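Supplementary Methods. Inverse-folding protocol.

Structures were first reduced to a discrete structure-token string of length 227. This string, shown here, constituted the complete conditioning input.
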């Protein structure tokens, strides 16, 4: 394998070979094991972003359990999509075990912030240097800052929400591969919720936008958040 020191692998679960179907038993919270190729600052950035991703997913779950599918904010992103399904996927996202290792050689492709390694190593997802570029990826602390509106950004604006994207491509997290990309920007995501709740509850960016919105409204800038 070609080792590229500048990027990092997130591997879900144990290092054992993946059998099909992928088992669903997961440890209780997302943990990071850093490979030695990971620099101290990369390690710090990713640890923080994973903590923030956990914060987002846990908060989103709490909000749904508290306010149920009748919550207008829930309906903005998931329409009449089944809330138990949504809670289930958020739960799986927070249950992963991640560890960092050396990498493949695909990060030089323009705009690539990471990629799932595919059949070669189905438990692993690569984190490319673009993920550490502070112009391209913001910390969650930037949410609502200085009048910024998250709805104006793609969900990869925040590294913590972009990590959900990385994890959704790992079969341990999304074993049936039903969660996919049907709508990406805010306008498309909210239109999808209104048109097709079943698709919305299987659309990656719906999870990220709802989690950002719920967190913004409840914790960062109550009561209205920063849509
Ligand atoms: C960081 O990202 C910005 C915006 O995507 C890009 O213009 C810039 O060239 C990147 N910097 C590096 C060092 O890659
Ligand atoms: C969202 O994506 C659609 C389709 O690609 C595009 O037409 C629209 O301009 C985008 N809207 C925003 C706010 O970026």
């Amino acid at each position: 394998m070609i080792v590229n020191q500048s990027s990092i692998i997130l591997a879900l679960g144990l290092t054992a070979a993946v059998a099909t179907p992928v088992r669903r038993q997961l440890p209780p919270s997302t943990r990071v094991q850093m490979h030695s190729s990971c620099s101290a600052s990369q390690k710090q950035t990713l640890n923080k972003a994973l903590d923030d991703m956990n914060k987002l997913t846990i908060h989103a779950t709490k909000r749904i359990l508290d306010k149920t599918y009748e919550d207008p904010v829930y309906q903005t992103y998931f329409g009449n999509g089944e809330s138990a399904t949504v809670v289930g996927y958020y739960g799986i996202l927070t249950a992963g075990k991640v560890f960092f290792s050396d990498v493949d050689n695909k990060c030089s492709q323009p705009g690539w912030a990471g990629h799932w390694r595919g059949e070669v190593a189905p438990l692993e997802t690569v984190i490319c240097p673009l993920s550490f570029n502070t112009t391209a990826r913001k910390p969650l602390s930037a949410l609502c800052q200085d009048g910024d509106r998250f709805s104006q950004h793609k969900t990869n604006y925040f590294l913590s929400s972009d990590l959900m994207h990385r994890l959704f491509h790992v079969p341990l997290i999304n074993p049936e591969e039903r969660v996919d990309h049907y709508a990406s920007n805010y306008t498309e995501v909210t239109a999808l919720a209104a048109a097709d709740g079943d698709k919305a509850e299987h659309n990656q960016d719906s999870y990220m936008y709802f989690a950002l919105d719920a967190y913004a409204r409840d914790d960062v800038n109550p009561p209205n958040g920063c849509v």
